[in-house]
Write a structure and sequence with these properties.
Largest sheet: 8 strands, mixed
Protein name: UDP-glucose 6-dehydrogenase
Bound molecules: 1,4-dihydronicotinamide adenine dinucleotide, uridine-5'-diphosphate-glucuronic acid
Number of strands: 14
Number of helices: 18
Radius of gyration: 23 Å
GO biological process, one term: UDP-glucuronate biosynthetic process
Helix content: 40-55%
EC number: 1.1.1.22
Structural class: alpha/beta
Pfam family, one: UDPG_MGDP_dh_C
CATH class of the largest domain: Alpha Beta
Strand content: 5-15%
CATH superfamily of the largest domain: NAD(P)-binding Rossmann-like Domain
CATH topology of the largest domain: Rossmann fold
Distance between the termini: 53 Å
Shape: globular
Catalytic activity: UDP-alpha-D-glucose + 2 NAD(+) + H2O = UDP-alpha-D-glucuronate + 2 NADH + 3 H(+)
Strand order of the largest sheet: 3-2-1-4-5-6-7-8
Length: 429
């Protein structure tokens, strides 16, 4: 099958590469020229384990190409995937400008019957709108069908998730286009769930909102654990053994970040609000997460009379390990608060530092290793559980002025840290 993918960010690129790997001919289109140049050379513009290798392999096999030219990109396409961003607007709703532009681009250049597949996370009703834009603006008289095919991959394990996901959701109006998209995905060998377009759109938001709810729930349990002398890890384990609850996404910490949970929870509140429904539970989830992000700053304030001129080492900046993505990372607000309070902040992340420099406060200093970050620090904050950080021996903290560690990801054993002579503050333990 000839497939075009519009937008080659985390989702578009991984989708394009995965579809090429299972044998399709894929052309990826992006408006970012520098990105496209890089990808043509087999270099991924994002950090995603295994992606460079798979890209190169499929480029060499002649199944994967890149272009900035929509006309060229759509020329042979039987199916066009839309994977452009749907970022958050100031009011929390999803910004659909990139989606609408992609629809207009499709309308302008398609010359044969096609199926448009929406991978981007879009509010209920958006697929109808995409079809309407294409039909209103199409130059050639061809048949267009639309399918909602939301994406469930996680950054940092995106390829693994594409090839081993729990389900592929296909939302369509007719059996014909649904069967084509099923056929395209068949080689993945994953369970396929067929539904209507609006339900597919909502499955995506409901799934992210539910996972975010689990995280905020366990974070509130962690707050209670700290007050009653229980251990949140033990509580989560005991809860998760019940198959109805499940053990995943019950890691307490400094809350969820990233490009999706924060924006998708707020967008779902808006989607509900638009039909006069007050999604109270989800509002609570968002509020808890907001508080959770600055929990370590509250703990620092409790420990130190003042943070003025205190040297604070920050270990980990990305919103989660194995990605260079800084979108909605807790490190942004935490480092901002520390600088406001007069602290000297020195930070380290194994891969996200380049992105971080463009986003974080200009006064932040950067180090090249865990050891260099900790040297002479008054306190250390752990914000991302990279293996390099979680595997550190407690002795590494002894180069600090005093080994005082605030761990926002519960990376270390309380006992090992205590025995290693570290004053250790974690979450809910
Ligand atoms: N990042 C993730 O892990 C996941 C994201 N999603 C959803 O997938 C969508 C895409 O997300 P990301 O890949 O993170 O976005 P991204 O921001 O990383 O990438 C979007 C890309 O689209 C390009 N673009 C914008 N307009 C274009 C146009 N008219 N023609 C061609 N290219 C265009 C941009 O230059 C950019 O490279 C969003 O709706 C997101 O919510 C869904 C599941 C996982
Ligand atoms: O729509 C999306 O973009 C994606 O959003 C999440 O994936 P992602 O944001 O890449 O990463 P997660 O592993 O879900 O982590 C999100 C945030 O939650 C935090 N988290 C996760 C799990 C946990 O138990 N506790 C916790 O605080 C992580 O540290 C991170 O900040 C979902 O897991 C994907 O299924 C979905 O496709």
């Amino acid at each position: 099958m000839n497939i075009s993918v519009v937008g080659t960010g985390y989702v578009g690129l991984v989708t394009g590469v995965s579809l090429a790997e299972i044998g399709h001919h894929v052309i990826c289109i992006d408006i970012d020229e520098a990105k496209v140049e890089q990808m043509k050379q087999g270099i991924s513009p994002i950090y995603e384990p295994g992606l460079d290798e798979l890209m190169s392999r499929n480029i060499e096999a002649g199944r994967l190409t890149f272009t900035t030219n929509h006309k060229e990109g759509f020329h042979l396409a039987d199916v066009i995937y839309i994977a452009v961003g749907t970022p958050e607007k100031v009011d929390g709703s999803a910004n659909l400008v990139f989606i609408e532009q992609a629809a207009r681009d499709i309308a302008k250049y398609i010359m044969k019957d096609i199926i448009v597949v929406t991978k981007s996370t879009v509010p209920v009703g958006t697929n109808d709108r995409i079809l309407e834009i294409i039909e209103d603006n199409q130059i050639h008289n061809v048949q267009i069908d639309i399918v909602a095919n939301p994406e469930f991959l996680r950054e940092g394990s995106a390829l693994m998730d594409s090839f081993n996901g729990d389900r592929i959701v296909i939302g369509a109006n007719n059996v014909y286009e649904a069967s084509i998209i099923e056929k395209i995905n068949e080689p993945f060998g994953l369970p396929i769930y067929h539904t209507d377009i609006r339900s597919a759109e909502l499955i995506k938001y409901a799934s992210n909102a539910f996972l975010a709810t689990k995280i905020s729930f366990i974070n509130e349990i962690a707050a209670i654990c700290e007050r009653v002398g229980a251990n949140v890890e033990h509580v989560a384990k005991g809860m998760g053994m019940d198959k109805r609850i499940g053990g995943e996404f019950l890691n307490a910490g400094i809350g969820y970040g990233g490009s999706c949970f924060p924006k998708d929870t707020k967008a779902l509140i808006q989607i509900a609000g638009n039909v006069a429904y007050d999604f109270e539970l989800l509002k609570g989830v968002v509020n808890v997460n907001q508080k959770q992000r600055t929990l370590l700053v509250d703990k620092l304030n409790e420990r130190f009379a003042t943070l003025v001129d205190k040297r604070i080492a920050v270990l980990g900046l990305a919103f989660k390990p194995n990605t260079d993505d800084m979108r909605e990372a807790a490190s942004i607000i935490i480092t901002e608060r520390l600088i406001e309070k007069g602290a000297i902040v020195i930070a380290y992340d194994p891969v996200a530092m380049e992105n971080a420099r463009g986003i974080l406060h200009a006064d932040i200093l950067y180090a090249n290793s865990v050891q260099e970050t900790l040297h002479d620090a008054d306190a250390a904050l752990v914000l991302t559980e990279w293996d390099e950080i979680r595997n550190a021996d407690p002795t590494v903290f002894h180069s600090m002025k005093n080994p005082i560690v605030f761990d926002g990801r519960n990376c270390f054993s309380v006992d090992v840290m205590r025995e290693g002579g570290v004053e250790y503050w974690s979450v809910g333990r």
